[in-house]
């Protein structure tokens, strides 16, 4: 799916002044100055060669469907990670230096919380996924650059180049402002900022599309089977525009948001430890979706060995469900997959899939190996229903933003009555092989704002009940936003903690923030679950911000011009 308005062929912009990237804000300049002085004091007076930044993101709609190949609709936010890098070269003719192994030193402006580490300058080293150290994401970025060169058949020549052969040490200093474990993608912002900074420092140049793909793949070294949305929007985000991110091939299409609406972000204060809990949350869902895809392919009569090669639900829907028609796919789910859970034994023996470890190549994929070791039951129908209905909601959301009147409903009173009659759960949609397919589109006549909010609300319900990726704190925060007068609210990002995104009429945004501060946060400040000093990072208004950028660093004038 090539996208109109895609920016994947362009390069990351080189900004010469901070105002090219940030709204006027004095604190930005002092943050960059702090980065540079931390760099100099950590690395014995060395100066940065390159500085890059990449932002976090908020996903407006389209949760847990990127790894199934479906488009999602995020925007980049103002909070970002900034990285300074320098490369020291070996002195020519110095035999001792020639023989010494090159190093990669990584440090953080907040060195107490994020301790520094030194690694060999070796792109083949493993990332220690068991340690969950923050520098793992820096290593991901570092390795990804060489993977990309390999893919482009340039690895040998780059490694043999005079530049790479003379590298003595690479130094990296990081400062992150995206709250960790909050569903705003701090990990991808770090991976992307590091990748862009190292790319520039190594005198390489990849397109935004290449960077989006390579960072998606490289982040998998950290242990999660990342889908690609976070890296793509961090690299390709733009001020004032949300983006529809497509996959295979990657693309970013501009989506203008209604100007009378404001998006608000609230942190549930439940930290989602993505890497640590991947086996029972994120990676388990990736496994469940793949098993659902395999059983759907089998349902359509595919030979079992062929079915076992299917990876995503989209692949199967595109082949068998009326060229990917999502209503047809939703109908097929009801026929192909059982309600409730399947046990491993049911899948391996009754469904004839054989050893699941082989399907997921567990000998070579530790992430899937752990999922299969630690879980014995897999919910397939609910997960597939979420994926197809969420993909449908993304489509609808984009169309409404582009000015199409709200049409197809995934819920509504008439529709719900009708669903009851035919025994279908309301948010699932209508199968196109159903004779009553055209019955009722209750979003007809709805205002644009209400329709967008409704889609966000339905997305949350589906995440909560079908995909089971919400938690009590997220649900409570969604309710707090709704009671305060928001039009819609939903969890954003992977879930199981992290943030909620809400939408409201712009003129009452401040009132809503004040109300939610009272109803949700005050008791948390009192009990110590949340720190009042972090208040502005916990609850704030947001707008689409710029994506990754390289900043011109000049030691005389500083980065700030
Ligand atoms: P976060 O919120 O960053 O954990 C994760 C994935 C996305 C996407 C969302 C769910 C990574 C880096 N990101 O986001 O690709 O699948 O969950 O929609 O794994």
Protein architecture, described:
The protein is an alpha+beta fold. 41% of the residues lie in helices and 17% in strands. It has 22 helices and 15 strands. The strands form 4 sheets. Strands 1-15-2-3-6-4-5 form a 7-stranded mixed beta sheet, sandwiched between helices. It has a 4-stranded antiparallel beta sheet with strand order 12-13-9-14. The longest helix is centred in the C-terminal third of the chain and has 21 residues, at 381-401. Residues 1-5, 409-414 and 427-441 have low confidence and may be disordered. It binds 2-acetamido-2-deoxy-1-O-phosphono-alpha-D-galactopyranose.
Any key phrases for this structure?
22 helices; 15 strands; disordered N terminus; about 40% helix; 7-stranded mixed sheet; 4-stranded antiparallel sheet; globular; alpha+beta; binds 2-acetamido-2-deoxy-1-O-phosphono-alpha-D-galactopyranose
Summarize the structure.
The chain is α+β, with helices and mostly antiparallel strands and 561 residues long. The chain is 41% helix and 17% strand.
């Amino acid at each position: 799916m090539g996208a109109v308005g895609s920016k994947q062929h362009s390069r990351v912009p080189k900004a010469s002044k901070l105002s090219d990237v940030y709204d006027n804000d004095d604190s930005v300049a002092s943050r960059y100055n702090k980065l540079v002085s931390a760099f100099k004091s950590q690395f014995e007076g060395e100066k940065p060669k390159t500085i890059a930044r990449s932002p976090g993101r908020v996903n407006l709609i389209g949760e847990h469907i990127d790894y199934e190949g479906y488009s999602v609709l995020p925007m980049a936010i103002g909070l970002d990670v900034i990285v300074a890098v320098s490369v020291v070269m070996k002195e020519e003719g110095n035999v001792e230096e020639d023989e010494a192994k090159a190093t990669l030193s990584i440090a953080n402006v907040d060195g107490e919380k994020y301790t520094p580490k030194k690694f060999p300058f070796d792109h083949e080293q493993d990332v220690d996924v068991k340690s969950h150290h923050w520098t793992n994401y820096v290593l991901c970025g570092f390795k990804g650059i060489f993977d990309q060169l390999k893919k482009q058949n340039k690895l040998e020549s780059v490694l043999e180049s005079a530049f790479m052969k003379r590298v003595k040490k690479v130094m990296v200093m990081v400062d992150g402002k995206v709250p960790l474990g909050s569903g705003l993608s701090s990990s991808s912002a770090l991976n992307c900022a590091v990748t862009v900074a190292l790319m520039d420092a190594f005198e390489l140049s990849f397109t935004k599309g290449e960077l989006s793909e390579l960072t998606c793949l490289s982040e998998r070294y950290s242990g999660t089977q990342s889908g690609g949305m976070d890296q793509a929007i961090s690299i390709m985000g733009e001020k004032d525009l949300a983006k529809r991110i497509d996959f295979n091939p990657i693309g970013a299409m501009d989506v203008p948001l209604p100007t009378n609406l404001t998006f608000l972000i609230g942190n549930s204060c439940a930290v989602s430890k993505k890497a640590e809990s991947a086996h029972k949350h994120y990676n388990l869902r990736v496994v469940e979706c793949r098993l659902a895809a395999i059983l759907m392919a089998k349902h359509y009569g595919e030979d079992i060995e062929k079915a076992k090669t299917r990876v995503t639900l989209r692949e199967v829907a595109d082949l068998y469900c009326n060229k990917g028609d999502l209503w047809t796919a939703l109908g097929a789910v009801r026929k192909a997959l059982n309600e409730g859970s399947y046990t491993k034994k049911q899948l391996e023996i009754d469904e004839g899939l054989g050893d699941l470890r082989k399907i997921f190549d567990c000998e070579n994929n530790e992430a899937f190996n752990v999922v299969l070791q630690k879980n014995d039951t897999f919910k397939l129908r609910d997960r597939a229903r979420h994926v197809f209905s969420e993909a449908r909601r993304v489509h609808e959301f984009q169309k409404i933003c582009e000015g199409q009147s709200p049409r197809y409903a995934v819920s509504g009173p008439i529709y719900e009555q009708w669903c009851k009659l035919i025994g279908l759960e309301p948010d699932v949609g209508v199968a196109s092989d159903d004779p009553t397919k055209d019955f009722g589109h209750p979003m007809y006549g709805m205002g644009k704002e209400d329709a967008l909010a409704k889609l966000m609300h339905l997305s949350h319900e589906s995440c909560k009940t079908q995909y089971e990726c919400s938690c009590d704190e997220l649900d409570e925060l969604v309710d707090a936003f709704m009671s305060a007068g928001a039009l819609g609210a939903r969890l954003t990002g992977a879930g199981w903690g992290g943030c909620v995104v809400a939408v409201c009429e712009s003129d009452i945004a401040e009132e809503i923030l004040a109300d939610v501060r009272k109803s949700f946060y005050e008791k948390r400040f009192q009990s110590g679950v949340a720190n009042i000093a972090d208040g502005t990072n916990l609850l704030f208004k947001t707008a689409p911000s710029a994506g990754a950028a390289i900043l011109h660093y000049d030691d005389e004038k500083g980065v700030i011009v």
